[in-house]
Amino acid sequence: MVLAYPSFLQPYSAEVTLLLIFIDGLMLGFAVKKAFTAVILTFVGLVIAYFLGLTFVPNVSISSIVHAIEVYATTIHFGSLIISFSIMVFIIGFGIGMWRG
């Protein structure tokens, strides 16, 4: 995908693209950190409900949830990933988003 910049930004297209990649990683880092916190708090709530004897979904146990996560985690494949400067900038933005989010 090639971005179309206005004529006054054309000389700075590489810098603007890197800045946008960094901001994209930063925003994704914020979102992932919030989602991770929500998943952890949901899991804690379900464990507390399990110990209290409350069930929200019938026939679901912690062991079946752990098994489903293990099956899903073993099917993820990334193939060959080539680290370029733009990917490094994205990862730096993602890390800062996770850290400061």
Tell me what the structure shows.
By secondary structure, the chain is mainly α. The protein has one domain. The chain is 68% helix and 0% strand. The chain is built from three helices and no strands. Helix 1 packs across helix 3. The chain is elongated, with a radius of gyration of 21 Å. The mean pLDDT is 78.
Name a few traits of the molecule.
101 residues, 0% strand, 68% helix, mainly alpha, single chain, 3 helices
Summarize the structure.
The chain has helices at residues 13-52, 62-74, 85-100. It is mainly α and 101 residues long.
Mean pLDDT: 78
For the biggest sheet, the summary is: none
Count every beta strand, where a strand is a DSSP E run of 2 or more residues.
0
Q: Number of folding domains?
A: 1
**Strand percentage:** under 5%
Structural class: mainly alpha
User: Into which percent range does the helicity of residues fall?
Assistant: 55-70%
Low-pLDDT ranges: none
- Outline type: elongated
- DSSP helix count? 3
- Any idea what the radius of gyration is? 21 Å
N-to-C SSE string, H for helix and E for strand: HHH
User: How far is it from the N-terminal to the C-terminal residue, by CA?
Assistant: 29 Å
